[in-house]
Amino acid sequence: MYIAPANTDLLLSEAQKESLYVKLVEQVNKDFALANEPVDFDVAITPISLKIELHEKVYKLIQYKFGEYLNLLYIIDVPEKEIKSLNGGDLSELAEQVAFLILKREWQKVWFRNRF
């Protein structure tokens, strides 16, 4: 049974533990490319670097390319209800929370593909 990790660090360590980290990075690259916002993370990227670089990318999208940001969320299929529940007071914190939701959804896709 799939249980979503509580935070980014737990998610990334679970992906590594299950030897699916590379697939997670590939899935992130694939979905960003589908949204015409390629990120091209190397599969050898460290989890902390992935977390930081994804946060920066989301921050820039929210700040400068909001339409593309919404398109990305749609393509990745991040639940709208979860996005609406976030506090948008601090843009940097919001970007960090959205980056976690993106990783959580991408991890769910990879996990299910691996299981079934």
Describe, in plain words, how this protein is organized in 3D.
With 116 residues, this protein is an all-alpha fold. The chain is built from 6 helices and no strands. The protein has helices at residues 8-17, 21-34, 47-64, 66-76, 80-84, 91-115. Helix 2 (21-34) packs across helix 6. The protein is globular. It starts with 7 loop residues before the first helix and ends with a helix. The mean pLDDT is 96.
The biggest beta sheet is recorded as: none
Listing every helix as H and every strand as E from the N terminus to the C terminus, the arrangement reads HHHHHH
Number of helices: 6
- What Rg, in angstroms, do the CA atoms define? 13 Å
Question: What is the general shape?
Answer: globular
User: What is the terminal-to-terminal distance?
Assistant: 11 Å
Task: Determine the structural class based on helices, strands and strand pairing.
Answer: mainly alpha
Helix content: over 70%
Mean pLDDT across every amino acid position: 96
Beta strand count:
0
- Strand fraction: under 5%
Write a concise synopsis of the structure shown.
This protein has 116 residues and is mostly helical. It contains six helices and no strands. Helix content is 72%, strand content 0%.
Give keywords.
116 residues; mainly alpha; globular
Task: Produce the secondary structure layout.
Elements (H helix, E strand, L loop, with lengths): L7 H10 L3 H14 L12 H18 L1 H11 L3 H5 L6 H25 L1
